[in-house]
Amino acid sequence: NHNHNHNHHFRHADSTASPPSSAVAKISHLKAVVLGDAPASEEDDVVLPSHDFSRQALVPSQQKYLEMYKASIENPAGFWSGIASSEFYWKQRWGDQVYSENLDVRRGNIKIEWFKGGITNVCYNCLDRNIDAGLADKIALYWESNEPGFDATLTYSQLLQRVCQLANYLKSVGVRKGDAVVVYLPMLMELPITMLACSRIGAVHSVVFAGFSSESLAQRIVDCKPKVVITCNAVKRGPKTVFLKDIVDAALIDSANKGISVDVCLTYENQLALKREKTKWKEGRDIWWEDVVPKYPTSSDVEWVDAEDPLFLLYTSGSTGKPKGVLHTTGGYMVYTATTFKYAFDYKDSDVYWCTADCGWITGHSYVTYGPMLNGATVLLYEGAPSYPDPGRCWDIVDKYKVTIFYTAPTLVRSLMRDGDEYVTRYSRKSLRVLGSVGEPINPSAWRWFFNVVGGSRCPISDTWWQTETGGFMITPLPGAWPQKPGSATFPFFGIQPVIVDEKGVELGGECSGYLCVKSSWPGAFRTLYGDHERYETTYFKPFPGYYFTGDGCSRDKDGYHWLTGRVDDVINVSGHRIGTAEVESALVSHPQCAEAAVVGVEHQVKGQGIYAFVTPVEGISYSDELRKSLILTVRTQV
Ligand code: WTA
Question: What b/e readout covers 308-325, taking b as 16+ CB neighbours within 10 angstroms?
């Protein structure tokens, strides 16, 4: 199956069209069960979509997928501009070129642009446009507290009012188009509100997952130099209270020492976790959200921006200790997240959608906030821990809100699986229609448990493979169209040309295994690493010239299905969270008793991977349990 250089070009064309069509021909030889008929057993190779599911689906057959896929590859400009112009509002249409790209380092700098010259606004498209279309009174957000019994809702028009108030406040403290705003918030409604308010005024949000240490937060503040930091005083995670404001205070001292001082720290008083009287305060810099934001007008002008103006920065781990500021822009990201959300979850207006990811990760950006809101969806936000007060909490929430689409990570599936079926089956879950998985490969036994026990063998699972860098889904089942193989992310989304190459960068055809790359750009692709375009080119485009290199290994089976096998670089994936081995090593060696450290990932039954560190203590110190604990603590506080 190995390819040779001389027929490289021929294989190019072949490999894009062949995986899907070969599957159509060969799938009939596999042992299959039909969705809804019976549980998927270990002998079943595939789960076929049922007639009932397919009939109502946006993409009802393999045939339809193939038609659309072919159109998207043969004419990307036509395919994406058709969607962009019919489903979004543009103040002004883009110029002559729908996109322009250079993904080949041998031909000069890497450049990706989509809809350049088009003028729009993502917040406007999420809120105003949907309200104008009649969704004013539709629930936009359901919020469920960590503590059972506390909840809240916002309709689309209420959400717009909240967003406008914050947008007006941010403008009043001098935040302008292009300015960075660092956000360190837990899963409160104020988090998507903040993201949308930034986008409304053209500010660039940089959300930092509110589980990162003050060192990590400071590092990000120093890198993007925000005018404002937005946080809350504390949050409850399960039975534990986490004092977020203290972490921000430490980060602000740290970044001031490095020359970056922040004028405003807007702090939301999260009353269920901590009263304001108990919050440490720095007069002049710190401002209570509740004291200022509600005083501002509930409507605000939109800052119209170019499709290629930045929407947000999101830092992610790489092979070195320094996190990378992945930059996404406006137009392409908007079109891509909305379209992938709609098709991969077979979205219907009546859906109630719950993604368990935190907005501090890309999944929360693309598939808690932007993708669903652009579709006018009802989104559930859950503040707390998934097993609190007991491992049935998720299904309690599913029943309470009649959740129809449930999107989560394999690590949660495996941990709930270990707690036993009883916690699941005591709830009805009959509202569920589609399940989703993201963050790491889902092993077939976890897939079957998710499918059989959680979904009652009725709900297709969209195992979505993608990355912070890709903005949206890249390889994913379309429920209703494809037979599913447990553990396979199946086939590429529209417009995506995955290729598997060997170590020399030669494309492999047919059944094969190697490094996963992508040929040609797609609207949701990241455009650069903030302040370091060279690192962008070196990390992603130099390893295999001509392609975007994902950092993942992948194999393709004889039916054309893709199987992701995990990272091939120095990134480990712990509970679906990317961690650079170098980040952990540099934390370890900062410990006064540690001379050298080397970190690797080890297989972990629940977390996918665990962290394993080899450590050499300094002269005169020998290994002890105390040293071990103190090293672990160092890593925890620094990372
Ligand atoms: C891994 C998360 C297998 C992969 C959206 C990738 C997956 C990294 C899957 C990106 C999946 C994500 N199957 N592996 N469905 N989804 N990954 O940037 O190794 O936090 O490169 O984005 O997670 O992690 P990131």
Answer: bbbbbbbbbbbbebbbbb
Give the pLDDT band of residue 16 (cuts 50, 70, 90): very low
For the Cβ of 81 lying below 6 angstroms from any atom of ligand 1, the answer is no
Minimum-distance ligand 1 atom for the alpha carbon of 577 = 20
pLDDT digits (tens, 9 = 90+) for 628-638: 999 999 999 88
| Closest C-alpha among 583, 630, 577, 585 to residue 604 | 577
Q: pTM of this prediction?
A: 0.93
CB-CB contact of 368 with 486 (8 Å) = no
Interatomic CA distance for residues 334 and 524, integer angstroms: 8
C-alpha–C-alpha distance, residues 378 and 70, integer Å: 32
Q: Is 552 in the pocket of ligand 1 (CB under 6 A)?
A: yes
- Say whether 569 is catalytic: yes
> What is the DSSP track for 286-317?
EEEHHHHGGGS-S------EETTSEEEEEEE-
Q: Is 489 in the pocket of ligand 1 (CB under 6 A)?
A: yes
Task: Give tens-digit pLDDT for 215-241.
Answer: 999 999 999 999 999 999 999 999 999
Q: Give the tens place of pLDDT for each residue, 171-213.
A: 999 999 999 999 999 999 999 999 999 999 999 999 999 999 9
Average confidence (pLDDT) over 508-537: 97
- The Cβ of residue 171 has, within 10 Å, a number of other Cβ atoms equal to 18
Beta-carbon contacts of residue 510 (< 8 Å; ≥ 6 apart) = 1, 18, 556, 558
